[in-house]
Amino acid sequence: LGHEQAVLVADETGFLKKGVKSAGVQRQYSGTAGRIENCQLGVFLVYASPHGRALIDRELYLPKVSWCADRDRCREAGIDDEVEFATKPELARLMLERAVDAGVPFSWFTADEAYGQNPGLRSWLEQRGIAYVMAIPCKQELPTSAGKRRADTLARLVPKTAWQRRSCGDGAKGPRLYDWALVDAGEHHSLLIRRSLTPNAKGIRELAYFLCHTPNPVPLDVLVQVAGTRWAVEECFQAAKNEVGLDHYQVRRYGAWYRHITLAMLAHAFLAVTARTQKGALQTPMTA
Fold first, then answer.
1. Can you list the alpha helix ranges (DSSP code H) found in 145-230?
2. Integer CA distances (angstroms), 173 to 9, 176, 263, in order
3. pLDDT at 285
4. What is the pLDDT of residues 131-185, one digit of tens each?
């Protein structure tokens, strides 16, 4: 699946659980359920390229107070004393470090607001020269020639002629079309703004904001495609859970979670590579 223009995507998914013994479990928000549930949270790194997409790394999130501060509880769940608390952006950085050290070919990183608003992760990416397009909240302040401005304030200053309609990739119903605008946000940084084509129930065309870091100038179309690639992680989660049992386990201990998740990821990657190989075989002309 390797490709030089591949995108790495970080995101978490929830694993609903009963009881209090499973490593890292507590009542916390789960995007899978769309509400606060008793669950474990796994942070994953997805590899998305023109050849396909697959989960390539994982870390189990351990809450600080209910788990990392209770070493007896950790030991009962098989968590070594050396395992310390790490935020989700810190877990994403750990996996990115492993990908870089392993020589994984890629050109971009993307993630949602939980990662995009984290200054530590952004700083690390910039120090390593890694280009990114990460979602940020509307209240995020960005540098301009007139001082710092909120992202939503900058969006209101965009002239009507600056919006350009682009697809950020195909969805279940065809191209995902939005209006997009690009605003300068300091050296090597820009603010990418996405606007929906139709008003919501309140009569408002919804906006989304992405902070972009590119060591060299990049066309709008490229930034739009990278932003759209973030949906690959949801597709991977759905496929891995439905097809290879990513969330079908009864294990409680820390090491057992990693073993199950790793095997499920391997099975998912195998299917992705097999699909790519089969597609290539079908496109190859038959010879006598």
1. 151-156, 220-229
2. 23, 8, 32
3. 52
4. 999 999 999 999 887 789 999 999 999 999 999 999 998 877 788 999 999 999 9
Q: Which residue has the tokens 């909120």?
A: 150
Q: Under DSSP, is residue 213 helix (H, G, I), strand (E, B) or coil? A: strand
User: Strand 164-171 and strand 147-150: pairing?
Assistant: unpaired
Assess whether pLDDT exceeds 60 at residue 288. Answer: no
Report d(CA 67, CA 214) in Å as an integer. Answer: 38
Max intra-chain CA distance, the chain: 69
Report the C-alpha gap between 15 and 264 in whole angstroms: 14
262-286 per-position pLDDT tens digit: 999 999 999 999 999 987 665 555 4
HSE, side-chain direction, 13 A CA sphere, residue 166:
21
The SS3 call for residue 267 is helix
Q: How far apart are CA 237 and CA 12, in angstroms?
A: 9
State how far the Cα of 90 lies from the Cα of 224, in Å rounded to an integer. Answer: 26
The predicted pLDDT at position 284 comes to 52
> Would you say residue 17 has pLDDT above 70?
yes
Annotate 268-282 with b (16+ C-beta within 10 A) or e (fewer): bbebbeeebeeeeee
Distance CA 114, CA 111 (A): 8
- Angle ∠(219,224,225) on CA atoms, nearest 5: 100
Query: Which runs of consecutive H residues, i.e. helices, occur in 143-253?
Result: 151-156, 220-229, 232-243
Length of the chain: 288
| Total-model pTM | 0.93
